[in-house]
Amino acid sequence: MATHHILNYVVPGDDFTRAGEASSAVKNTLKQLGIDNAAIRKVSIAIYEGEINMVIHAGGGTITVDISDQEVAMILQDKGPGIADISKAMEEGFSTAPDEIRLLGFGAGMGLPNMRKFTDEFNLQSTLGIGTTVTMKVKF
Amino acid sequence: MENNIDKFVCSVRLEEELCKGCINCIKHCPTQAIRVHKGKARIIDRFCIDCGRCVRYCPHHAKVADYDPISIISKYKYVVALPAPALYAQFQNLNNVDYVLNALLRLGFDDVYEVSAAAELVSHASREFLKKHKNQGTFISSACPSVIRLIRVKFPTLLPRLLPIKAPVEVAAEIAKERAITQTGLAPEDIGIIFISPCPSKVSYVKYPLGLEKSTINHAVAIKDIYPLLLPHMNMKESQLKPLSHSGRIGLGWGNAGGEVSGLLTDSYLSADGITNIIRVLEDLEDEKIYSMKFVELSACSGGCVGGILNVENPYLAAHKTQRLKKYQPVSKNRAEHNPELKDIFWEEKIEYEPVFRLGNNFRESLNMLQEVEKLVKLFPGFDCGSCGAPTCQTLAEDIVRGDAQINNCIHLLRTHVYELAKDIQVLSMSPELDSDHEDTQKIKKHIEELMEKLAEFTIS
Protein backbone atom coordinates (compact mmCIF):
# COMPACT_ATOMS: atom_id res chain seq x y z
CA MET A 1 0.00 0.00 0.00
CA ALA A 2 1.41 3.29 -1.05
CA THR A 3 1.61 6.09 1.50
CA HIS A 4 3.32 8.77 -0.56
CA HIS A 5 2.94 10.22 -4.00
CA ILE A 6 5.93 11.85 -5.66
CA LEU A 7 5.70 14.33 -8.52
CA ASN A 8 8.70 15.65 -10.47
CA TYR A 9 8.82 18.69 -12.73
CA VAL A 10 11.44 20.45 -14.77
CA VAL A 11 11.07 24.23 -14.93
CA PRO A 12 12.55 25.55 -18.18
CA GLY A 13 14.62 28.72 -17.89
CA ASP A 14 13.74 32.02 -19.59
CA ASP A 15 10.23 31.03 -20.62
CA PHE A 16 7.68 33.03 -18.66
CA THR A 17 4.78 31.48 -20.50
CA ARG A 18 5.53 28.12 -18.90
CA ALA A 19 5.99 29.31 -15.33
CA GLY A 20 2.92 28.10 -13.46
CA GLU A 21 2.66 24.75 -15.21
CA ALA A 22 4.00 22.84 -12.22
CA SER A 23 1.84 24.66 -9.67
CA SER A 24 -1.22 24.06 -11.83
CA ALA A 25 -0.46 20.32 -12.22
CA VAL A 26 0.23 19.89 -8.49
CA LYS A 27 -3.01 21.70 -7.66
CA ASN A 28 -4.92 19.34 -9.91
CA THR A 29 -3.39 16.25 -8.28
CA LEU A 30 -4.05 17.56 -4.76
CA LYS A 31 -7.71 18.11 -5.67
CA GLN A 32 -7.95 14.56 -7.00
CA LEU A 33 -6.56 13.34 -3.69
CA GLY A 34 -9.11 15.38 -1.74
CA ILE A 35 -6.49 17.43 0.18
CA ASP A 36 -7.78 20.31 2.33
CA ASN A 37 -8.53 23.38 0.18
CA ALA A 38 -6.62 25.87 2.31
CA ALA A 39 -3.51 23.65 2.08
CA ILE A 40 -3.88 23.37 -1.70
CA ARG A 41 -3.91 27.14 -1.96
CA LYS A 42 -0.72 27.46 0.11
CA VAL A 43 1.13 24.78 -1.88
CA SER A 44 0.04 26.31 -5.15
CA ILE A 45 1.22 29.80 -4.24
CA ALA A 46 4.55 28.52 -2.87
CA ILE A 47 5.32 26.48 -5.99
CA TYR A 48 4.19 29.22 -8.35
CA GLU A 49 6.48 31.78 -6.68
CA GLY A 50 9.31 29.23 -6.84
CA GLU A 51 8.74 28.64 -10.54
CA ILE A 52 8.85 32.36 -11.26
CA ASN A 53 12.09 32.72 -9.24
CA MET A 54 13.72 29.91 -11.19
CA VAL A 55 12.74 31.50 -14.51
CA ILE A 56 13.89 35.00 -13.53
CA HIS A 57 17.09 34.25 -11.64
CA ALA A 58 18.32 30.72 -12.21
CA GLY A 59 17.69 29.71 -15.81
CA GLY A 60 15.25 27.03 -14.69
CA GLY A 61 15.48 24.15 -12.23
CA THR A 62 13.64 21.14 -10.85
CA ILE A 63 10.73 20.66 -8.45
CA THR A 64 9.99 17.53 -6.44
CA VAL A 65 6.71 17.28 -4.57
CA ASP A 66 6.11 14.55 -1.99
CA ILE A 67 2.48 14.17 -0.92
CA SER A 68 1.41 12.16 2.13
CA ASP A 69 -1.73 12.18 4.26
CA GLN A 70 -0.05 14.60 6.69
CA GLU A 71 1.82 17.09 4.54
CA VAL A 72 3.10 18.20 1.17
CA ALA A 73 6.89 18.48 1.06
CA MET A 74 8.47 20.45 -1.76
CA ILE A 75 12.10 20.64 -2.91
CA LEU A 76 12.95 23.33 -5.44
CA GLN A 77 16.44 23.09 -6.80
CA ASP A 78 18.40 25.16 -9.29
CA LYS A 79 21.93 25.54 -10.57
CA GLY A 80 21.70 29.31 -10.82
CA PRO A 81 24.09 31.99 -9.53
CA GLY A 82 23.09 31.54 -5.87
CA ILE A 83 21.94 34.21 -3.40
CA ALA A 84 24.62 36.51 -1.97
CA ASP A 85 22.71 37.80 1.06
CA ILE A 86 19.96 35.41 2.14
CA SER A 87 18.53 37.56 4.95
CA LYS A 88 18.25 40.50 2.55
CA ALA A 89 16.58 38.24 -0.03
CA MET A 90 13.97 37.28 2.54
CA GLU A 91 12.95 40.94 3.12
CA GLU A 92 9.63 41.92 1.55
CA GLY A 93 10.24 44.24 -1.38
CA PHE A 94 13.94 43.48 -1.82
CA SER A 95 14.69 42.43 -5.37
CA THR A 96 17.69 41.88 -7.61
CA ALA A 97 15.49 41.35 -10.67
CA PRO A 98 16.74 43.31 -13.69
CA ASP A 99 14.70 46.26 -14.98
CA GLU A 100 13.34 44.43 -18.01
CA ILE A 101 11.84 41.79 -15.69
CA ARG A 102 10.27 44.49 -13.50
CA LEU A 103 8.77 46.07 -16.59
CA LEU A 104 7.03 42.76 -17.19
CA GLY A 105 5.40 43.13 -13.78
CA PHE A 106 7.58 40.59 -11.99
CA GLY A 107 10.43 41.09 -9.53
CA ALA A 108 8.43 42.88 -6.82
CA GLY A 109 10.54 41.29 -4.10
CA MET A 110 7.67 39.20 -2.76
CA GLY A 111 8.66 35.77 -4.10
CA LEU A 112 10.71 34.33 -1.24
CA PRO A 113 8.76 36.16 1.52
CA ASN A 114 5.52 34.74 0.12
CA MET A 115 6.98 31.24 -0.06
CA ARG A 116 7.89 31.48 3.63
CA LYS A 117 4.57 33.11 4.54
CA PHE A 118 2.42 30.41 2.96
CA THR A 119 4.36 27.35 4.21
CA ASP A 120 4.71 25.73 7.62
CA GLU A 121 8.38 24.89 7.16
CA PHE A 122 10.76 26.86 5.00
CA ASN A 123 14.46 26.32 4.49
CA LEU A 124 16.74 28.00 1.99
CA GLN A 125 20.28 26.95 1.18
CA SER A 126 22.35 28.74 -1.38
CA THR A 127 25.94 28.74 -2.51
CA LEU A 128 27.27 31.39 -4.88
CA GLY A 129 28.11 29.91 -8.24
CA ILE A 130 26.57 26.53 -7.33
CA GLY A 131 22.84 27.12 -6.95
CA THR A 132 19.93 27.33 -4.55
CA THR A 133 17.75 24.72 -2.87
CA VAL A 134 14.49 25.62 -1.15
CA THR A 135 12.70 22.99 0.93
CA MET A 136 9.18 23.72 2.14
CA LYS A 137 6.38 21.88 3.87
CA VAL A 138 2.67 22.55 4.09
CA LYS A 139 0.97 20.49 6.82
CA PHE A 140 -2.65 19.61 7.25
CA MET B 1 -32.92 17.20 1.62
CA GLU B 2 -29.96 17.22 -0.70
CA ASN B 3 -30.62 15.56 -3.96
CA ASN B 4 -27.58 14.83 -6.08
CA ILE B 5 -29.55 14.57 -9.29
CA ASP B 6 -30.98 18.06 -8.81
CA LYS B 7 -27.69 19.48 -7.69
CA PHE B 8 -26.01 18.48 -10.92
CA VAL B 9 -28.93 19.19 -13.23
CA CYS B 10 -27.70 19.94 -16.73
CA SER B 11 -29.66 21.51 -19.57
CA VAL B 12 -27.93 19.90 -22.52
CA ARG B 13 -29.58 16.83 -23.97
CA LEU B 14 -28.43 14.25 -26.52
CA GLU B 15 -30.55 13.49 -29.60
CA GLU B 16 -29.41 9.88 -29.78
CA GLU B 17 -30.36 9.21 -33.38
CA LEU B 18 -28.36 12.23 -34.59
CA CYS B 19 -25.21 11.38 -32.60
CA LYS B 20 -22.57 9.76 -34.81
CA GLY B 21 -20.25 8.98 -31.91
CA CYS B 22 -17.53 11.30 -33.22
CA ILE B 23 -15.18 13.05 -30.80
CA ASN B 24 -15.89 16.74 -31.50
CA CYS B 25 -17.84 17.41 -28.32
CA ILE B 26 -15.55 15.48 -25.97
CA LYS B 27 -12.60 17.48 -27.24
CA HIS B 28 -14.28 20.85 -26.67
CA CYS B 29 -15.67 20.18 -23.20
CA PRO B 30 -13.72 22.32 -20.68
CA THR B 31 -14.42 20.00 -17.73
CA GLN B 32 -14.02 16.73 -19.65
CA ALA B 33 -17.61 15.81 -18.88
CA ILE B 34 -18.45 13.83 -22.03
CA ARG B 35 -17.60 10.24 -23.01
CA VAL B 36 -18.54 8.39 -26.17
CA HIS B 37 -19.96 5.13 -24.92
CA LYS B 38 -21.43 2.53 -27.27
CA GLY B 39 -21.26 5.03 -30.10
CA LYS B 40 -23.15 7.83 -28.30
CA ALA B 41 -21.71 10.94 -26.62
CA ARG B 42 -23.08 10.97 -23.09
CA ILE B 43 -22.69 13.77 -20.56
CA ILE B 44 -21.61 12.96 -17.03
CA ASP B 45 -23.91 15.40 -15.23
CA ARG B 46 -21.77 15.95 -12.15
CA PHE B 47 -18.82 17.17 -14.26
CA CYS B 48 -20.96 19.38 -16.55
CA ILE B 49 -21.05 23.14 -15.94
CA ASP B 50 -23.64 23.84 -18.64
CA CYS B 51 -21.38 26.07 -20.72
CA GLY B 52 -23.02 24.90 -23.96
CA ARG B 53 -19.75 24.34 -25.85
CA CYS B 54 -20.81 20.84 -26.94
CA VAL B 55 -24.01 22.28 -28.45
CA ARG B 56 -21.94 24.88 -30.27
CA TYR B 57 -19.40 22.42 -31.66
CA CYS B 58 -21.50 19.35 -32.51
CA PRO B 59 -21.45 19.15 -36.34
CA HIS B 60 -24.51 16.86 -36.33
CA HIS B 61 -26.69 19.00 -34.04
CA ALA B 62 -27.06 16.01 -31.74
CA LYS B 63 -26.39 18.04 -28.60
CA VAL B 64 -29.34 20.31 -27.91
CA ALA B 65 -30.21 22.75 -25.18
CA ASP B 66 -33.16 21.82 -23.02
CA TYR B 67 -35.64 24.62 -22.32
CA ASP B 68 -39.38 25.19 -22.25
CA PRO B 69 -41.54 25.89 -25.32
CA ILE B 70 -43.29 29.27 -25.54
CA SER B 71 -46.65 27.46 -25.29
CA ILE B 72 -45.91 27.03 -21.58
CA ILE B 73 -47.42 30.47 -20.96
CA SER B 74 -50.94 29.07 -21.47
CA LYS B 75 -50.53 27.18 -18.15
CA TYR B 76 -50.96 30.41 -16.18
CA LYS B 77 -53.73 32.95 -15.68
CA TYR B 78 -51.23 35.81 -15.75
CA VAL B 79 -47.76 35.72 -17.30
CA VAL B 80 -44.87 38.14 -16.96
CA ALA B 81 -41.96 38.08 -19.42
CA LEU B 82 -38.45 38.76 -18.16
CA PRO B 83 -36.44 39.61 -21.28
CA ALA B 84 -32.65 39.28 -20.96
CA PRO B 85 -30.80 42.36 -22.23
CA ALA B 86 -29.35 40.12 -24.96
CA LEU B 87 -32.83 39.90 -26.53
CA TYR B 88 -32.75 43.57 -27.57
CA ALA B 89 -29.45 43.07 -29.36
CA GLN B 90 -30.94 40.53 -31.79
CA PHE B 91 -32.94 43.00 -33.90
CA GLN B 92 -31.82 45.08 -36.87
CA ASN B 93 -32.15 48.87 -36.67
CA LEU B 94 -33.78 48.87 -33.25
CA ASN B 95 -33.50 52.24 -31.57
CA ASN B 96 -36.17 51.88 -28.91
CA VAL B 97 -36.50 48.91 -26.56
CA ASP B 98 -40.25 49.58 -26.26
CA TYR B 99 -40.78 47.96 -29.68
CA VAL B 100 -39.63 44.64 -28.20
CA LEU B 101 -41.52 45.06 -24.93
CA ASN B 102 -44.78 46.02 -26.66
CA ALA B 103 -44.38 43.06 -29.02
CA LEU B 104 -44.08 40.74 -26.01
CA LEU B 105 -47.46 42.00 -24.76
CA ARG B 106 -49.01 41.53 -28.19
CA LEU B 107 -47.62 38.01 -28.27
CA GLY B 108 -49.59 37.07 -25.16
CA PHE B 109 -47.67 38.15 -22.09
CA ASP B 110 -49.66 40.21 -19.57
CA ASP B 111 -46.71 42.23 -18.34
CA VAL B 112 -42.96 42.60 -18.79
CA TYR B 113 -40.16 43.29 -16.34
CA GLU B 114 -36.76 43.94 -17.83
CA VAL B 115 -33.81 41.97 -16.48
CA SER B 116 -31.75 45.04 -17.39
CA ALA B 117 -33.75 47.11 -14.87
CA ALA B 118 -33.00 44.59 -12.12
CA ALA B 119 -29.36 44.55 -13.26
CA GLU B 120 -29.11 48.20 -12.28
CA LEU B 121 -30.25 47.30 -8.77
CA VAL B 122 -27.60 44.58 -8.69
CA SER B 123 -24.97 47.07 -9.89
CA HIS B 124 -26.01 49.46 -7.12
CA ALA B 125 -25.86 46.71 -4.46
CA SER B 126 -22.47 45.55 -5.83
CA ARG B 127 -21.03 49.05 -5.52
CA GLU B 128 -22.23 49.29 -1.93
CA PHE B 129 -20.89 45.80 -1.14
CA LEU B 130 -17.45 46.55 -2.58
CA LYS B 131 -17.30 49.84 -0.68
CA LYS B 132 -18.11 48.01 2.55
CA HIS B 133 -15.60 45.24 1.87
CA LYS B 134 -12.79 47.49 0.75
CA ASN B 135 -9.29 45.95 0.97
CA GLN B 136 -10.77 42.49 1.54
CA GLY B 137 -9.42 41.01 -1.65
CA THR B 138 -10.81 40.52 -5.12
CA PHE B 139 -14.47 39.60 -5.58
CA ILE B 140 -15.73 37.52 -8.49
CA SER B 141 -18.94 38.14 -10.43
CA SER B 142 -21.70 35.63 -9.70
CA ALA B 143 -24.02 36.51 -12.59
CA CYS B 144 -23.02 33.63 -14.93
CA PRO B 145 -24.22 30.28 -13.50
CA SER B 146 -21.59 28.36 -15.50
CA VAL B 147 -18.86 30.35 -13.75
CA ILE B 148 -20.33 29.50 -10.35
CA ARG B 149 -20.64 25.83 -11.31
CA LEU B 150 -17.04 25.80 -12.54
CA ILE B 151 -15.79 27.34 -9.29
CA ARG B 152 -17.97 24.93 -7.29
CA VAL B 153 -16.24 21.86 -8.76
CA LYS B 154 -12.75 23.12 -9.68
CA PHE B 155 -11.79 26.17 -7.62
CA PRO B 156 -13.01 25.62 -4.04
CA THR B 157 -10.62 28.20 -2.56
CA LEU B 158 -12.37 30.88 -4.61
CA LEU B 159 -15.91 30.17 -3.36
CA PRO B 160 -15.65 32.81 -0.60
CA ARG B 161 -14.63 35.35 -3.27
CA LEU B 162 -17.94 35.09 -5.16
CA LEU B 163 -20.08 38.22 -4.92
CA PRO B 164 -22.98 37.01 -2.71
CA ILE B 165 -25.62 38.93 -4.65
CA LYS B 166 -28.49 37.36 -6.58
CA ALA B 167 -28.30 37.36 -10.36
CA PRO B 168 -30.27 40.16 -12.10
CA VAL B 169 -32.80 37.67 -13.49
CA GLU B 170 -33.64 36.41 -9.98
CA VAL B 171 -34.05 39.97 -8.68
CA ALA B 172 -36.28 40.74 -11.68
CA ALA B 173 -38.39 37.64 -10.99
CA GLU B 174 -38.91 38.49 -7.32
CA ILE B 175 -39.99 42.06 -8.07
CA ALA B 176 -42.19 40.98 -11.00
CA LYS B 177 -43.95 38.30 -8.95
CA GLU B 178 -44.69 40.64 -6.01
CA ARG B 179 -45.91 43.30 -8.40
CA ALA B 180 -48.18 40.85 -10.25
CA ILE B 181 -49.70 39.55 -7.00
CA THR B 182 -50.47 43.10 -5.83
CA GLN B 183 -51.85 44.23 -9.17
CA THR B 184 -54.01 41.19 -9.96
CA GLY B 185 -54.90 39.73 -6.56
CA LEU B 186 -54.24 36.29 -8.06
CA ALA B 187 -52.73 33.40 -6.13
CA PRO B 188 -48.94 33.06 -6.64
CA GLU B 189 -49.34 29.73 -8.48
CA ASP B 190 -51.56 31.36 -11.10
CA ILE B 191 -48.81 33.79 -12.04
CA GLY B 192 -46.12 32.57 -14.44
CA ILE B 193 -42.73 34.28 -14.42
CA ILE B 194 -41.05 33.45 -17.72
CA PHE B 195 -37.40 34.24 -18.42
CA ILE B 196 -36.36 34.76 -22.04
CA SER B 197 -32.90 33.25 -21.85
CA PRO B 198 -29.73 33.52 -23.94
CA CYS B 199 -28.26 30.22 -22.67
CA PRO B 200 -29.02 26.75 -21.21
CA SER B 201 -26.95 27.52 -18.12
CA LYS B 202 -29.68 29.86 -16.91
CA VAL B 203 -32.27 27.18 -17.70
CA SER B 204 -30.48 24.89 -15.24
CA TYR B 205 -30.31 27.75 -12.78
CA VAL B 206 -34.12 27.94 -12.79
CA LYS B 207 -34.30 24.24 -11.84
CA TYR B 208 -31.44 24.33 -9.34
CA PRO B 209 -30.58 27.89 -8.34
CA LEU B 210 -27.26 28.72 -6.71
CA GLY B 211 -27.18 30.89 -3.60
CA LEU B 212 -30.86 30.36 -2.78
CA GLU B 213 -33.13 27.40 -2.22
CA LYS B 214 -35.79 28.02 -4.83
CA SER B 215 -35.95 30.36 -7.80
CA THR B 216 -38.98 32.60 -8.34
CA ILE B 217 -38.65 32.07 -12.09
CA ASN B 218 -41.12 29.42 -13.29
CA HIS B 219 -39.78 28.69 -16.75
CA ALA B 220 -37.03 29.65 -19.16
CA VAL B 221 -37.69 29.95 -22.89
CA ALA B 222 -35.09 30.58 -25.61
CA ILE B 223 -34.38 33.91 -27.28
CA LYS B 224 -34.05 32.05 -30.60
CA ASP B 225 -37.59 30.65 -30.22
CA ILE B 226 -39.25 33.94 -29.36
CA TYR B 227 -37.31 36.04 -31.86
CA PRO B 228 -39.25 34.99 -35.00
CA LEU B 229 -42.57 35.23 -33.12
CA LEU B 230 -41.86 38.81 -32.08
CA LEU B 231 -40.92 40.12 -35.53
CA PRO B 232 -44.52 40.35 -36.93
CA HIS B 233 -45.59 42.22 -33.77
CA MET B 234 -42.93 44.89 -34.07
CA ASN B 235 -44.53 46.60 -37.03
CA MET B 236 -45.84 49.54 -34.99
CA LYS B 237 -45.54 53.30 -35.14
CA GLU B 238 -43.39 54.75 -32.39
CA SER B 239 -46.33 56.90 -31.28
CA GLN B 240 -48.43 53.76 -30.64
CA LEU B 241 -45.89 52.28 -28.22
CA LYS B 242 -46.73 52.01 -24.54
CA PRO B 243 -43.76 53.38 -22.58
CA LEU B 244 -42.59 50.25 -20.79
CA SER B 245 -38.81 50.34 -20.79
CA HIS B 246 -37.10 51.34 -17.62
CA SER B 247 -33.42 50.65 -18.21
CA GLY B 248 -30.43 52.94 -18.38
CA ARG B 249 -27.03 52.46 -19.99
CA ILE B 250 -25.75 50.25 -17.17
CA GLY B 251 -28.64 47.80 -17.37
CA LEU B 252 -28.69 47.59 -21.17
CA GLY B 253 -24.96 46.91 -21.22
CA TRP B 254 -25.09 43.91 -18.86
CA GLY B 255 -25.59 41.45 -21.72
CA ASN B 256 -22.16 42.26 -23.13
CA ALA B 257 -18.73 41.31 -21.82
CA GLY B 258 -17.53 44.18 -19.65
CA GLY B 259 -21.09 45.35 -19.05
CA GLU B 260 -21.27 44.36 -15.41
CA VAL B 261 -17.99 46.03 -14.47
CA SER B 262 -18.93 49.24 -16.24
CA GLY B 263 -21.78 49.46 -13.73
CA LEU B 264 -19.36 49.39 -10.82
CA LEU B 265 -17.96 52.81 -11.66
CA THR B 266 -14.42 51.79 -10.73
CA ASP B 267 -11.31 51.15 -12.78
CA SER B 268 -10.01 48.47 -10.42
CA TYR B 269 -11.42 45.54 -12.34
CA LEU B 270 -10.75 42.85 -14.89
CA SER B 271 -13.26 41.39 -17.33
CA ALA B 272 -12.74 38.06 -19.08
CA ASP B 273 -15.01 36.10 -21.39
CA GLY B 274 -14.82 32.71 -23.09
CA ILE B 275 -14.42 29.52 -21.07
CA THR B 276 -10.70 28.92 -21.65
CA ASN B 277 -9.90 32.54 -20.82
CA ILE B 278 -11.86 32.52 -17.60
CA ILE B 279 -10.22 29.27 -16.47
CA ARG B 280 -6.87 30.99 -16.85
CA VAL B 281 -8.05 33.96 -14.80
CA LEU B 282 -9.39 31.65 -12.08
CA GLU B 283 -6.04 29.81 -11.95
CA ASP B 284 -4.26 33.13 -11.55
CA LEU B 285 -6.68 34.24 -8.84
CA GLU B 286 -6.00 31.00 -7.01
CA ASP B 287 -2.23 31.55 -7.21
CA GLU B 288 -2.60 35.14 -5.95
CA LYS B 289 -1.31 36.50 -9.24
CA ILE B 290 -4.36 38.76 -9.29
CA TYR B 291 -4.68 40.41 -5.89
CA SER B 292 -4.80 44.17 -6.20
CA MET B 293 -8.11 44.29 -8.03
CA LYS B 294 -11.54 44.97 -6.54
CA PHE B 295 -13.58 42.94 -8.96
CA VAL B 296 -13.35 40.29 -11.66
CA GLU B 297 -16.18 39.85 -14.16
CA LEU B 298 -16.31 36.45 -15.86
CA SER B 299 -18.64 35.19 -18.59
CA ALA B 300 -18.42 31.62 -19.86
CA CYS B 301 -19.39 32.72 -23.38
CA SER B 302 -17.19 34.82 -25.64
CA GLY B 303 -18.70 38.27 -25.88
CA GLY B 304 -20.76 37.82 -22.70
CA CYS B 305 -24.44 36.79 -22.56
CA VAL B 306 -24.97 37.91 -26.17
CA GLY B 307 -22.59 35.03 -27.01
CA GLY B 308 -24.92 32.44 -25.44
CA ILE B 309 -26.00 29.58 -27.68
CA LEU B 310 -29.72 30.48 -27.59
CA ASN B 311 -29.15 33.80 -29.36
CA VAL B 312 -29.67 34.42 -33.06
CA GLU B 313 -27.26 37.27 -33.74
CA ASN B 314 -23.46 37.14 -33.97
CA PRO B 315 -22.25 38.28 -30.51
CA TYR B 316 -19.99 41.01 -31.87
CA LEU B 317 -22.74 42.53 -34.01
CA ALA B 318 -24.99 42.22 -30.96
CA ALA B 319 -22.48 44.23 -28.92
CA HIS B 320 -22.49 46.90 -31.60
CA LYS B 321 -26.28 47.09 -31.52
CA THR B 322 -26.28 47.46 -27.75
CA GLN B 323 -24.09 50.53 -28.10
CA ARG B 324 -26.71 52.08 -30.35
CA LEU B 325 -29.55 51.31 -27.91
CA LYS B 326 -27.62 52.78 -24.99
CA LYS B 327 -26.76 55.97 -26.79
CA TYR B 328 -29.51 58.32 -25.62
CA GLN B 329 -30.17 56.71 -22.23
CA PRO B 330 -29.21 58.04 -18.80
CA VAL B 331 -26.57 56.07 -16.86
CA SER B 332 -29.08 54.29 -14.63
CA LYS B 333 -32.83 54.46 -14.03
CA ASN B 334 -33.27 52.06 -11.11
CA ARG B 335 -32.64 52.46 -7.42
CA ALA B 336 -33.53 50.10 -4.58
CA GLU B 337 -35.71 52.70 -2.83
CA HIS B 338 -38.04 52.82 -5.85
CA ASN B 339 -38.55 49.06 -5.74
CA PRO B 340 -40.29 48.26 -2.45
CA GLU B 341 -41.02 44.74 -3.78
CA LEU B 342 -37.31 43.95 -3.56
CA LYS B 343 -36.84 42.14 -0.26
CA ASP B 344 -33.32 40.83 -0.09
CA ILE B 345 -30.80 41.14 -2.86
CA PHE B 346 -28.17 38.98 -1.13
CA TRP B 347 -27.71 35.23 -1.37
CA GLU B 348 -29.74 33.23 1.08
CA GLU B 349 -27.29 30.34 1.36
CA LYS B 350 -23.64 29.60 0.83
CA ILE B 351 -22.43 27.55 -2.11
CA GLU B 352 -20.57 24.42 -1.06
CA TYR B 353 -17.59 22.80 -2.76
CA GLU B 354 -18.50 19.67 -4.74
CA PRO B 355 -15.35 17.52 -5.00
CA VAL B 356 -16.52 15.59 -8.07
CA PHE B 357 -13.00 15.19 -9.44
CA ARG B 358 -11.68 13.56 -6.27
CA LEU B 359 -10.70 9.98 -7.11
CA GLY B 360 -11.51 8.01 -3.95
CA ASN B 361 -13.45 8.43 -0.73
CA ASN B 362 -10.42 9.13 1.44
CA PHE B 363 -6.76 10.02 1.06
CA ARG B 364 -5.45 6.45 1.09
CA GLU B 365 -7.96 5.26 -1.47
CA SER B 366 -7.39 8.30 -3.70
CA LEU B 367 -3.63 7.84 -3.47
CA ASN B 368 -3.80 4.21 -4.58
CA MET B 369 -6.12 5.16 -7.42
CA LEU B 370 -3.83 8.00 -8.48
CA GLN B 371 -0.88 5.63 -8.67
CA GLU B 372 -2.93 3.17 -10.73
CA VAL B 373 -3.79 6.07 -13.05
CA GLU B 374 -0.09 6.92 -13.46
CA LYS B 375 0.78 3.30 -14.32
CA LEU B 376 -1.98 3.18 -16.94
CA VAL B 377 -0.99 6.52 -18.45
CA LYS B 378 2.49 5.12 -19.05
CA LEU B 379 0.98 2.21 -21.01
CA PHE B 380 -1.08 4.44 -23.29
CA PRO B 381 0.51 6.06 -26.36
CA GLY B 382 -0.32 9.63 -25.23
CA PHE B 383 -1.94 10.65 -28.53
CA ASP B 384 -5.09 11.90 -26.77
CA CYS B 385 -6.84 10.74 -29.95
CA GLY B 386 -10.24 10.31 -28.29
CA SER B 387 -10.95 7.03 -30.10
CA CYS B 388 -11.60 5.31 -26.77
CA GLY B 389 -14.41 7.78 -26.11
CA ALA B 390 -12.53 9.73 -23.42
CA PRO B 391 -10.98 13.11 -24.30
CA THR B 392 -7.41 12.23 -23.22
CA CYS B 393 -5.30 9.20 -22.25
CA GLN B 394 -5.27 10.61 -18.71
CA THR B 395 -9.09 10.71 -18.49
CA LEU B 396 -9.32 7.15 -19.87
CA ALA B 397 -6.91 6.02 -17.14
CA GLU B 398 -9.06 7.79 -14.51
CA ASP B 399 -12.22 6.20 -15.91
CA ILE B 400 -10.64 2.74 -15.76
CA VAL B 401 -9.54 3.26 -12.16
CA ARG B 402 -13.03 4.47 -11.27
CA GLY B 403 -14.38 1.30 -12.88
CA ASP B 404 -16.12 3.08 -15.74
CA ALA B 405 -13.94 1.86 -18.66
CA GLN B 406 -11.67 -1.00 -19.71
CA ILE B 407 -8.07 -0.97 -20.82
CA ASN B 408 -8.96 -2.31 -24.28
CA ASN B 409 -11.05 0.83 -24.91
CA CYS B 410 -7.68 2.17 -26.06
CA ILE B 411 -7.62 1.06 -29.70
CA HIS B 412 -3.82 1.24 -29.83
CA LEU B 413 -3.42 -1.16 -26.93
CA LEU B 414 -6.22 -3.28 -28.33
CA ARG B 415 -4.31 -3.64 -31.59
CA THR B 416 -1.18 -4.76 -29.74
CA HIS B 417 -3.22 -7.17 -27.66
CA VAL B 418 -4.87 -8.68 -30.73
CA TYR B 419 -1.47 -9.15 -32.35
CA GLU B 420 -0.09 -10.85 -29.25
CA LEU B 421 -3.13 -13.07 -29.10
CA ALA B 422 -2.54 -14.11 -32.71
CA LYS B 423 1.09 -14.87 -31.99
CA ASP B 424 -0.06 -17.17 -29.20
CA ILE B 425 -2.22 -18.99 -31.70
CA GLN B 426 0.78 -19.35 -33.98
CA VAL B 427 2.81 -20.87 -31.16
CA LEU B 428 -0.07 -23.20 -30.49
CA SER B 429 -0.09 -24.22 -34.13
CA MET B 430 3.48 -25.42 -33.80
CA SER B 431 2.71 -27.71 -30.91
CA PRO B 432 3.64 -31.40 -31.45
CA GLU B 433 -0.01 -32.43 -31.37
CA LEU B 434 -0.43 -30.67 -34.67
CA ASP B 435 2.78 -32.17 -36.06
CA SER B 436 1.17 -34.60 -38.39
CA ASP B 437 1.27 -35.16 -42.10
CA HIS B 438 -2.45 -35.43 -42.10
CA GLU B 439 -3.86 -33.31 -44.88
CA ASP B 440 -6.29 -31.38 -42.62
CA THR B 441 -3.62 -30.52 -40.08
CA GLN B 442 -1.34 -29.20 -42.79
CA LYS B 443 -4.20 -27.11 -44.12
CA ILE B 444 -4.80 -25.55 -40.71
CA LYS B 445 -1.10 -24.78 -40.29
CA LYS B 446 -0.92 -23.16 -43.67
CA HIS B 447 -3.99 -21.09 -42.91
CA ILE B 448 -2.49 -19.86 -39.62
CA GLU B 449 0.71 -18.86 -41.43
CA GLU B 450 -1.26 -16.85 -43.96
CA LEU B 451 -3.20 -15.14 -41.19
CA MET B 452 0.06 -14.23 -39.44
CA GLU B 453 1.41 -12.67 -42.62
CA LYS B 454 -1.70 -10.55 -42.96
CA LEU B 455 -1.55 -9.59 -39.30
CA ALA B 456 2.06 -8.45 -39.63
CA GLU B 457 0.81 -5.67 -41.91
CA PHE B 458 -1.28 -4.28 -39.06
CA THR B 459 1.53 -3.81 -36.59
CA ILE B 460 3.07 -0.46 -36.05
CA SER B 461 6.74 -0.11 -35.37
Proportion in helices of chain A: 25-40%
Biggest pleated-sheet summary of chain B: 4 strands, parallel
What sequence of helices (H) and strands (E) makes up the elements of chain B? HEHEEHEEHHEHEHHEHEHHHEHEHHHHH
C-alpha end-to-end distance of chain A = 21 Å
What is the CATH architecture descriptor of chain A? 2-Layer Sandwich
Helix content of chain B: 40-55%
Terminal-residue CA separation of chain B:
57 Å
- The third-level CATH topology of chain A is Heat Shock Protein 90
Subunit arrangement of the protein = heterodimer
The number of E-state strands of chain A comes to 5
Number of domains of chain A: 1
Q: Radius of gyration of chain A, rounded? A: 15 Å
Low-confidence stretches of chain A: none
Order of helices and strands of chain A: EHHEEHHHEE
Strand order of the largest sheet of chain B: 6-5-8-9
Strand content of chain B: 5-15%
- Average of per-residue pLDDT values of chain B: 92
Per the principal axes of the C-alpha atoms, what is the gross shape of chain A?
globular
Describe this structure as you would to a colleague.
The complex is a heterodimer of chains A (140) and B (461). Chain A is an alpha+beta fold and 140 residues long. Chain A is 36% helix and 29% strand. A five-stranded antiparallel β-sheet of chain A has the order 1-2-3-5-4, with helices on one face. Chain B has 461 residues and is an alpha/beta fold. Chain B is built from 18 helices and eleven strands. In chain B, a hairpin with a 2-residue loop joins strand 2 and strand 3. The radius of gyration of chain B is 28 Å and the shape is elongated. The chains are: A alpha+beta (140), B alpha/beta (461). Chains A and B meet through helix 1 and helix 2 of A and helix 15 of B.
